[in-house]
Amino acid sequence: MSALKLVPWGQVIESTPQILQGARKLMNRGEQQQEAQQSPAAVRHEGTSEQLAGLQRQVAQLQEEQRASAVLIRSLAEQNAQVVRTVDALRARSRWLTGACSLLGVVTIALLVWVLSR
């Protein structure tokens, strides 16, 4: 639970709409491509220059999708890196707390022994 408290949720929430929008765009483009591929009769009737223009549009669209995917992946990687840094900090604090509790336990036992021996 402590790890979840240290995650910069404000930043995660702020970037969530952008990530969702990018994901929706990618999904919509994929659906459009599937619809275009399902109508081969239209491709047969096109001339060679029209086919070439269509292929160039598809290549341009794929390049744009690749750029959008890269932005989305970069954003997710940055958020993942923040979570990893936070978890590492928590591990270090946990080790320190374990050592402090152990020391406190030893001191408490020593004081108890000292009080009972008097």
Characterize the structure shown.
This protein is 93% helix and 0% strand. Helix 2 runs antiparallel to helix 4. The protein has helices spanning 2-6, 9-37, 40-45, 48-117. With 118 residues, it is mostly helical. The radius of gyration is 29 Å and the shape is rod-shaped. The chain is built from four helices and no strands.
Low-confidence spans: none
- Percentage of residues in strands: under 5%
- Average pLDDT level: 79
Q: Rounded to an integer, what's the Rg over CA atoms?
A: 29 Å
Euclidean distance between termini CA atoms: 44 Å
Q: Tell me, briefly, the overall form.
A: rod-shaped
Main sheet summary:
none
Oligomeric state as shown: single chain
Structural class: mainly alpha
Order of helices and strands: HHHH
Percent helix among the residues?
over 70%
Count of extended strands: 0
> Can you count the helices?
4
What structural keywords apply?
118 residues; mainly alpha; rod-shaped
SSE inventory with pairings:
Elements: H1 2-6, H2 9-37, H3 40-45, H4 48-117
Helix pairs in contact: 2-4
Question: What is the gist of this entry?
Answer:
With 118 residues, the chain is mainly α. 93% of the residues lie in helices and 0% in strands.
